[in-house]
Structures are given as C-alpha cells and as structure tokens.
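Journal club prep, shared notes

We agreed each person brings one worked example of a sequence with its structure written out as tokens. Mine is AraC-like DNA-binding protein. I'm keeping it raw so we can talk through how to read the token line rather than staring at a rendered picture. Sequence first:
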Amino acid sequence: MGFMALDELRDLLLRHARPDLGTSIDDVLIFKAERPQPPTPTTYGKVLAVVAQGTKRFALGEQLYEYREGQYLVASVDLPVTAHFAKASPGRPGLGVGLTLHPAAIAEVLLQAAPGDLPELDDDAPPALTISTASAELLDAVVRLLRLLDRPSDIAVLAPLVKREILWRLITSDQGAIVRQFGLPDSSLSHVARAVQWIRDHYAQPFSVEDVARLAGMSASAFYRNFRAATAMSPIQFQKQIRLQQARLQLAAAPGDIAAVSRRVGYDSPSQFSREYRRQFGAPPSQDAKLLTPARGRGGSAGISV
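Then the structure, token by token:
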C-alpha cells in the first residue's frame, strides 16, 4: 500500500505543482525542485511536510537533518533553517507536500478522543521538529486530500474531513507527543512557541532570558531547558539565526546597504556582523549580496517549506 500511495502521490504532485506553490485547498502547498538547490535560509513554520520524491537536507542550529521519499517532518514552532533538495533533475524532480498545522484544529481533534485513547504526556517540551517514516494510513489520507484537486466541487465539504483524519494519524503516530503538545495551550511546547514568536517579532532588540521566560510563563531554568530541547538552540542563538536570515533577505533587496542592514537587524558591531554572517552563509555580506541580487523573488526565504 505504501509504495502504491507514493506513486500516486508523485503523480498528483507533478500534475498540480504551480510556481507559486499554492493549491486550491487551504493550507496545502506543493513543492517541486527540478535541479539541486543551494542551501537556502527558510522557515519551517507549523507544518506537516511529506517528501514524495528526492531527499531534502536542512540545518537547524548546529544539527543536520535529512528526510527522503516516504518520510515526513513535523515542525511545531517557527524554526529558522537552511534547507535544500540534495538531488533533483527535470526527469526526477524533488517533490513534497506541506500542510499548515493549526493548534485550534489539533485541540478540537484531541477533545474528541475518548479517555484512555492517548498516553499521558511528559511535562518537558519535546523537540519542535522531528522526522519519521509515514505510515500507510497517513500516506493514504494525504493522497485522498490531494485527489480532491481533481474534483474542485468536493473540496469545501471533504477537505476538512480528510485534514482531520491526517491530524488524528499524526496524533497517534510515533511523533504524536509533539502534535499533542502543540495543540494544548498550557503545554511546555506552547510556552516555548510563545517565546519563539516574541523573539521573531523583536529580533533586533536585546533581551534577557529571564524577561522572555517571564513572557512565556515559565521559570528561567525551565524555560531555558525546554527552549533548547524544542529548538536545538539557546534563545540567544535562536535570535542570531533570525537576525542573519533577516539580514540576508534585506541584502537581496539592497545589496549596497550593508552597514545599515547590520544596524537594522540589531548588530552594534559591523565586524561582528560580517564575521557571523560569513560563518553562517559561507561568504561575507558584500560578496553574498552580489550573488543574491539575480535571485530576487526566487522564494524559499519565508513561509513554510518541505
């Protein structure tokens, strides 16, 4: 069943892939790469992502990951990563599908589960990003969701039902703890998610861990432990990743304004900015900006990606 579902999933993705990644089903994106891509800064938002063909590699902080056809990724907070399809060609493009995850929808499914259907959760936050092999049931549900693209008149009624089934398959999977914590407003992962959002919104300003822990509703020690467990980074390292990604986006639009960009993203020292930028992207800002200019509008630097 799994191989047949993957074959059909590839056919559906090839048929319905668009340059803008969108589909006529809300929260569903299709990704297609016809050539190997350079590692690109992007955001893995709150998403389920399934690879149907090829291998996707990405770095989160100091950790390297990859997932390939038949595997899926779940990200439960907005994480700054550098990602690319390792191998792709017009004859065998990299293919994937992403479904945005909403805490309220997960909470609604959890409320319908019978007592005892789900094991108890640990208090500590699980990693906010994990990779697993998709079960036959999950692949089948994803295929049925994408089949609706061939029957647009069915989407309004049937897509919400299939999405609910997909959420249930995730909740009861090996990675169910992540998805369940994501749907519970008072879980450790939800507290971390609030802190992540605050750092993303205020990335240019300095902060203390104690202040952000207070905003997240946790003690400083519990917050630091759970933040690092969820994101594989300390809060300060996370902020640096966001600053550097934002700097790269701004340099793509204004390649000659390096000093101003470094100040806007929160760096007081241009030399520190240049040093950390080079360590992150492999070239100093001035050189990288020249490479970025022809690629404006290429996409992949914001939003979700598989």
